Amino acid sequence: MRRPYPSDLSDARWNFIEPLLQSDNSRAGTSRGRKRSTNLREVVNAINYRWSTGCPWRMLPHDFPA
């Protein structure tokens, strides 16, 4: 766990966005391809941080996923 940033998604916003990010395979209940190794919520949080601060991608804090 990491300390939250002000730009992080609230639980309510994540619950709204998460179904839009699910792949067709996960919605259909099939298991094709490999499982994701990156937490999508953390990816969206990193994008929000980048938009909020205007920092370059290479300067994102290290506690966000690669």
Describe this structure in words.
45% of the residues lie in helices and 0% in strands. The chain is globular and about 40 Å long. It has a domain of 43 residues. The mean pLDDT is 86. The relative contact order is 0.20. It has 3 helices and no strands. With 66 residues, it is an all-alpha fold.
What does this entry show, briefly?
Helix content is 45%, strand content 0%. It contains three helices and no strands. The mean pLDDT is 86.
Please describe the topology of this protein:
Elements: H1 11-21, H2 24-28, H3 40-53
Secondary-structure element series: HHH
Number of strands: 0
- How much of the sequence is in beta strands? under 5%
Structural class: mainly alpha
